[in-house]
């Protein structure tokens, strides 16, 4: 899978109880193999047991207005039940990028509502990776 829309960096953290960033370097790899992440994600519950399997929460525990991006239907969704999702928190751009607002929530919630929009490279890459990993939903801290 090629990531050509956003810059690439390698972040290295300590493997301690409270991880901290110890190195930050440009990553000049042009290709990334999502199978590596799939293998790590599938191995984690097997190796770590219940520490990697979250306890189920009632859907009523979701914050009001909690929304996800459905990468399959390319729109914003508000789920009534708990679903598995990937999370993206990133450094926002200059403020000119797409934002979910009351005036566009109806449009962005329609199937295909995100398909023809100009999304930031970080968001587009994250959605592509999410889909490549077989995950349907992604929470993005600002869209």
3D architecture notes:
This protein has about 140 residues and is α+β, with helices and mostly antiparallel strands. The protein has one domain. It is about 20% helix and about 15% strand. It has helices at about 35-50, 105-110, 120-130, and strands at about 10-15, 20-25, 70, 75, 85-90, 135-140. It has a four-stranded mixed β-sheet. A two-stranded antiparallel ribbon has the order 1-2. A hairpin with a 4-residue loop joins strand 3 and strand 4. The longest helix is centred in the N-terminal third of the chain and has 15 residues, at about 35-50. The protein starts with 8 loop residues before the first strand and ends with a strand.
Tags for this model:
single chain, 143 residues, alpha+beta, four-stranded mixed β-sheet, two-stranded antiparallel ribbon, 22% helix
The largest pleated sheet is described as: 4 strands, mixed
Q: What is the string of SSEs from the N terminus onward?
A: EEHEEEHHE
Query: Order of strands side by side in the largest beta sheet?
Result: 4-3-6-5
- Terminal CA distance reads 23 Å
Q: What portion of residues belong to β-strands?
A: 15-25%
Number of domains: 1
Total strands: the figure is 6
**What is the SS-derived class?**
alpha+beta
What's the overall average pLDDT, rounded? 80
Question: Which bin fits the share of residues in helices?
Answer: 10-25%
Pfam family, one: HET
Protein name: Heterokaryon incompatibility domain-containing protein
Organism: Hyaloscypha variabilis (strain UAMH 11265 / GT02V1 / F) (Meliniomyces variabilis)
InterPro entries: HET (IPR010730)
């Amino acid at each position: 899978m090629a990531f050509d829309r956003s810059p690439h960096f390698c972040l290295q953290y300590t493997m301690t109880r409270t991880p901290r960033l110890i190195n930050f370097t440009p990553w000049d790899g042009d290709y990334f193999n999502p199978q590596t992440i799939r293998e790590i994600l599938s191995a984690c519950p097997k190796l770590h047991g219940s520490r990697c399997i979250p306890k189920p929460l009632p859907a009523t525990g979701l914050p009001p207005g909690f929304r996800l991006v459905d990468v399959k239907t390319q729109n914003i969704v508000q789920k009534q039940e708990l679903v598995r999702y990937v999370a993206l928190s990133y450094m926002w751009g200059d403020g000119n990028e797409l934002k979910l607002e009351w005036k566009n929530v109806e449009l962005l919630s329609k199937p295909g509502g995100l398909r023809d929009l100009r999304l930031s490279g970080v968001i587009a890459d994250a959605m592509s990776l999410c889909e490549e990993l077989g995950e349907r939903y992604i929470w993005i801290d600002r869209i």
